[in-house]
Structure formats: structure tokens, C-alpha cells
């Protein structure tokens, strides 16, 4: 049975899709509420509880114009680096968040990860159910669950087919999940323990330098790696990100301002970008 948080997210995702498909018609709150089978009052309240803003305000963050403004601002003042270094004091706890990445050694993941012991659990998030997994060193995997839990677990096991698995929500996972709460003061250092090439690790670390509420492009990310010709390779590394949301590959969009595709679906990417933009704006 679906939990209420997942039911609410599915309704909100359906509403975002409806808004985007009928954008030129400027659908009313009543029309969207009817589409997702709730009363206008309940829809407005549910949406504001989820995003912190009204549906009308939220949609402004999903426009091409808004995306272009964010990209332009970032290019003009190199906000991505400045925000990461200074913490933009007072704007968001996430700007102070320190996520440490440790690459797995070849010995740790050799022979399908037979030396690894991995704990995993399922949890609710504002964007649907997730599966999260950890070694004794940190989070090694996080993904959204769109099908059966057994399918999601098998996708995790495909990463490390010979590892030892135990369904257990450990302190490493619980700490990382605080990122979805409103009280980011509870967050401690989040450690990631990742299997990847040196180049992939560099790209994932560069993604961590994009603050909440900001966006970047593949070419912009390549430039930050001092390798401006590597946009295609950067895109491939972004697409192979093993830790959804914590490593914010959803904050990378096309140079023309379009949000583009996402491993877990474009609607979820829209929801995440808008949700973060609303949190960032309300923190200013």
C-alpha cells in the first residue's frame, strides 16, 4: 500500500505534468485540482505543504526564462564557486553542508564487490520512495523506486553482485536522509563511498559544488574541471551518478535553459528543481 507522502508526490507530479502540457492555456487551480481528483482547497494546501509555495509561484521556477536567468547569474558572478566557498551565510543550511566523497579502491569492488558488506533500506522522500545503501565508509547508492522494491534491490545488486547484503537502516543512511527534512541543522557530515573512475569521481565532486537553487550546464561543468572540450564525457559521468539527489545531477540542464532528460524521469527533475528553488527563495 502506498504511503501518504508517496500518494501526495504522485498527485503533485501529475499536476506538474498537467501544468506543463497545458501551459499556454494557463489552467486554473480548479482545473488542475479536478485533474488530480482532489478539491481545490486540498490541492492548494497539499502543494504548499510540499513545496512551501503555491502552485502558481512554483511554476515560475520551471519556466525557460527563470532557468536562463539562473544560468546567466551564475556565469556573471561565478556564483557556484562563491556560494560553495562562502556558504552564503544565512540563506540555506545546505550551503554549509559538507559531503565528503571517497572513491572505492579496486580491491574493494573487485570480483563484483565480494569484499563489501552493504546495508540497504527503503525510505520515503518528497519525490517518492527511494532505496539507499551504505558500506561501513558511507553511502554507496541511492535511487528512486518506480517499480517493485524487488526490482530496485536487484538494480542495486547489479552494481555489486557478489557483495553481502543486509536490509538495515543504519546511522549513515539515517543521517543522509535528513537532507529531505526542513531542519537541516540535524545534518552532520555526509560521507559517500563510491565506485567510479577518477574522472567520474571528479565530475561527481563538481556536481556537489552546485548549490541548492542554482543550475549549471554540461559545458559549464566541463569548464570547472578545466577541460572545456569534455562536455560529452561529463554528460556520461553525470548520467552514471550512483547517488540520486545527494549528488545533484538534476541541477545540470541544457545551455538553452531546457531542463532536459533525467534518469528517473523529466517530471521528477522538474519537481526537484522547483522544490529546491522554492526552498532557496524562502530562505533568502
TrEMBL record:
CDD domains listed in its UniProt record: ATase
Name the UniProt record assigns to this protein: Methylated-DNA--[protein]-cysteine S-methyltransferase
Keyword DNA damage: yes
Family matches, as InterPro entries: Homeodomain-like_sf (IPR009057), HTH_AraC (IPR018060), MethylDNA_cys_MeTrfase_AS (IPR001497), MethylDNA_cys_MeTrfase_DNA-bd (IPR014048), MethylDNA_cys_MeTrfase_DNAb (IPR036217), MethylG_MeTrfase_N (IPR008332), MGMT_N_sf (IPR036631), WH-like_DNA-bd_sf (IPR036388)
Keywords linked to the UniProt accession: DNA damage, DNA repair, Methyltransferase, Transcription, Transcription regulation, Transferase
GO biological process, one term: methylation
PANTHER family for this protein: METHYLATED-DNA--PROTEIN-CYSTEINE METHYLTRANSFERASE
Classification via Gene3D superfamilies: Homeodomain-like, Methylated DNA-protein cysteine methyltransferase domain, Winged helix-like DNA-binding domain superfamily/Winged helix DNA-binding domain
EC number of this enzyme: 2.1.1.63
Lineage: Bacteria, Pseudomonadati, Bacteroidota, Chitinophagia, Chitinophagales
Residues covered by the HTH araC/xylS-type domain: 13-112
NCBIfam families assigned: ogt
Keyword Transport: no
Pfam (any one): DNA_binding_1
A molecular function (GO) term: methylated-DNA-[protein]-cysteine S-methyltransferase activity
Catalytic activity: a 4-O-methyl-thymidine in DNA + L-cysteinyl-[protein] = a thymidine in DNA + S-methyl-L-cysteinyl-[protein]; a 6-O-methyl-2'-deoxyguanosine in DNA + L-cysteinyl-[protein] = S-methyl-L-cysteinyl-[protein] + a 2'-deoxyguanosine in DNA
EC primary class: transferase
